[in-house]
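[audit] Reproducing an earlier prediction to check determinism. Same input, same settings, fresh worker. If the tokens differ from the archived copy the diff job will pick it up downstream; this log only records the rerun itself.
[audit] input (172 residues):
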Amino acid sequence: MRVQVVYFMVAVLLGGCASVVPEAIRTPAPGNVQIAHVHDQPQLYRDATVRWGGKIVSARNESDRTELEIVGRNLGSEGRPETDDISQGRFLVKVQGFLDPTIYKRDRLVTVRGRVEGVVDRSIGEYRYTYPVVVADTVHLWKTPPLPLTRYPYYYDPFYDPWRWPYYRPWP
């Protein structure tokens, strides 16, 4: 009976270590096609499978799908976009169904996997920009990191006096 309890506890502890990131997001796409490659030669990379990620600029819902505009970033080993200020370029993602724009909002990190559909010309302000378009199979929204502590991480006693006994004794 005790051996079964030990096995159960080990299984529970190891299950807690399992990753919640989908396998399609964790593994790089074959060929490692970059945003700049598709931007420069869209006809060559049409229908290529890609795994790209970055910060969401906007989410626009249409009748049967959602379109995300993303500023591409380098991806880490798990597929999480890095938070540096190096942009790989912008791209559009078409996701079948509804994504809530209050959840998929500006500055959230997202990683997508899908196939390249082509490019589309739009403007950023008055500048014409060519966006690579990805039809997503898998979309993973990353959790936002917790806010830093603004208080002292330890207890501070406002009545602490280092010259009071037992901290300081003027006699031997």
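[audit] rerun output stored. Observation attached for the diff report: The radius of gyration is 25 Å.
[audit] end
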